[in-house]
Every structure is written in C-alpha cells, then in structure tokens.
C-alpha cells in the first residue's frame, strides 16, 4: 500500500478491467482453452463477435456470434462503433467498442478470441491488452490433430495448414506464447498467466483506513 493509502499500481496493465486476447491457428485448441478460462473465471466476459454471415447449423444468436444485417454493420462502421472490424470472404466481422468500453469501465476482465489482424487493431486502441498466442508443438502435430478430428476434407486441411504457417510466423507479436502440447498443462499455464494479471490489480481500496494521514 502507498503511504497515503491512495491507489497503488503494482502493474499498469490492468488499471480497470483487463483485455485478454487469445489467438491460435485452427486446430491448436483455442476454443477449448477459451471455454476452460471462462469456466475457471466465471466473472470473465467473453467478447462475442458480430458478423453479417448467416448462422451455420447449430450456431446460436448471441452465443456463437451476434448475427446482424450488412446495412446494420455498415451503419456501425460509419458511426465508429467497432473496436475493430474486418471483411472476410465477403462477410463482415467486428468487435463492439461499446461492449469492451463498458466492461472495462466496470472493472470487468474480457476475453477476446480473434486473429492476428484483429489483435493488432485492438492493441492500437487498447495498448495494455494482454496478448497470448496458442501454438501447437509443431506443424506436423497440428496436421495430425486436424486429420484426426475428421471434420475437414484434405483440401480444407491444406488451406488450414497454409494459414497456420502464416499465423505461427506472427507469434512473436504476442506478449505470451503457450505451446499446447498437452491440453491439461496448457490450460493450467493459461489460467495461471491470466490469474497473475488479475492478482496484480491496483489496490483501489485502503485496507487500513486509520493509517491515512489527515
Ligand atoms: P467463421 O465465419 O468461420 O466463424 O470466421 C471466419 C473468420 O472471421 C475467421 O478467420 C475468424 O477469425 C474471423 N473473425 C471472427 N470474428 C471476428 C472479429 O470479431 N473480428 C475479426 N477481425 N475477425 C473475426
């Protein structure tokens, strides 16, 4: 505690809420890790992206994405409502600035699951974001995982592998890199990492009020 009992910052990363940004190539276990983080920290907000693409079978409005119209999305671009947005394969995707700002102001931690381009845009606007890249132990291991999942045809696996190589070349842009060789260990490492930032919050109350000088 500071002598005056005023706010003391032990780490300037999380002055109010923390933004945790997770990126990973497809098949590196990011979704499972995000779910584990949200289970472990029930007060963590998860940033659900907005998109103009139609829902796929099994996807739920507000859980997988906020599905909105193209007109609505463009209107929100014009009124500066996106913290970041991108056009991918003819569809728009974006992260609501209002959602992030309101959460952070209220002191909530927020988890974002976005790609490297989105991460760079968020980092420009929220420079104290904590960025984590999840990487597979090797490209061969990633290929094995993609093949054993059985959900993708060989040509799709090839595209995922090409994208994974590009994404892994960007890992140095992240503050932390976690190798997901063993899912349980990677989950533990990620939770410990997030917890260390949450523990280093500035102290916003004075536990010893009588020691405050007049
Ligand atoms: P899908 O339509 O397969 O769910 O996602 C297609 C692409 O959009 C993926 O590469 C995904 O990373 C990207 N994406 C999803 N949400 C967002 C977002 O909020 N912002 C940006 N920039 N990209 C996103």
Characterise this structure.
With 214 residues, the protein is of the alpha/beta class. A hairpin with a 2-residue loop joins strand 5 and strand 6. Helix content is 38%, strand content 18%. It has a domain at 19-47 and 108-198: 3-Layer(aba) Sandwich (Rossmann fold), CATH 3.40.50.300. The longest helix is centred in the C-terminal third of the chain and has 17 residues, at 183-199. Helix 1 (30-40) crosses helix 7. The strands form two sheets. The chain has a five-stranded parallel β-sheet, with helices on both faces. Strands 4-3-6-5 form a four-stranded mixed β-sheet. The chain is globular and about 45 Å long. Bound molecules: guanosine-5'-monophosphate. Guanosine-5'-monophosphate binds next to strand 5, strand 6 and helix 4.
């Amino acid at each position: 505690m500071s002598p005056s009992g005023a706010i003391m910052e032990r780490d300037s990363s999380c002055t109010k809420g923390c933004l945790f940004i997770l990126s990973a190539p497809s098949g590196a276990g990011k979704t499972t890790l995000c779910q584990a983080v949200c289970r472990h920290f029930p007060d963590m907000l998860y940033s659900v992206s907005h998109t103009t693409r139609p829902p796929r079978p099994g996807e739920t409005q507000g859980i997988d994405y906020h599905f909105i119209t193209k007109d609505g999305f463009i209107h929100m671009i014009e009124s500066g409502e996106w913290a970041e947005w991108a056009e991918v394969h003819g569809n728009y995707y974006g992260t609501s600035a209002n959602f992030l700002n309101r959460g952070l102001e209220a002191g909530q931690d927020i988890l974002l699951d976005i790609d490297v381009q989105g991460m760079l845009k968020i980092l420009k606007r929220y420079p104290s974001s904590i960025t984590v890249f999840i990487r597979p132990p090797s490209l061969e291991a990633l290929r094995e995982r993609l093949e054993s999942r059985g959900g993708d045809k060989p040509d799709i696996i090839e595209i995922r592998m090409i994208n994974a190589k590009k994404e892994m070349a960007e890992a140095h842009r992240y503050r932390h890199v976690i190798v997901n060789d063993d899912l349980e260990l990677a989950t533990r490492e990620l939770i410990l990492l997030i917890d260390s930032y949450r523990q280093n919050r500035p102290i916003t109350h004075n536990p010893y009020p009588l020691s405050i000088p007049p």
